[in-house]
Amino acid sequence: MTDTISDFLTRIRNAQAARHRVVEIPSSNLKKAMTQVLFEKGYILNYKFDKVDNFDVIKIALKYNASTKQPAITKLIRVSKPGLRKYTGVEALPRVINGLGIAIMSTSKGVITDKEARQLHVGGEVLCYIY
Questions:
Q1: Distance separating the N- and C-terminal Cα atoms of the chain
Q2: Containing H/E element for 117?
Q3: 38 close to 4: Cβ distance less than 8 angstroms
Q4: Which of 32, 60, 69, 126 could bond 79 through an S-S bridge, CB–CB 3.0 to 4.6 Å?
């Protein structure tokens, strides 16, 4: 597998389409940081770092609207890909749906959202858009 972040997003997307409550994803430090950002911003219910058959996995409890049963995450869009990396400076940080969504970025300050990058005045690689 060459693009682990795309696999991470696809597993979440597919689990929500199938209305699963929990999804298991192979773990890495970048995926752990992205999961923490999703939890802090309220896109997932909870997460747990676990070990299954000597492999580290992330168990993510997906969040749905109680009345309409719609998932909290409408779209997951991969921006920077292994074949074409997308970097942005402080002056050109993306705004997802005019501030309603988030852009997850990998910066020198760690994996953060676009809003936090503006506050810290740092640029970096735009990993994905979530709304």
A1: 26
A2: helix 114-120
A3: no
A4: 126
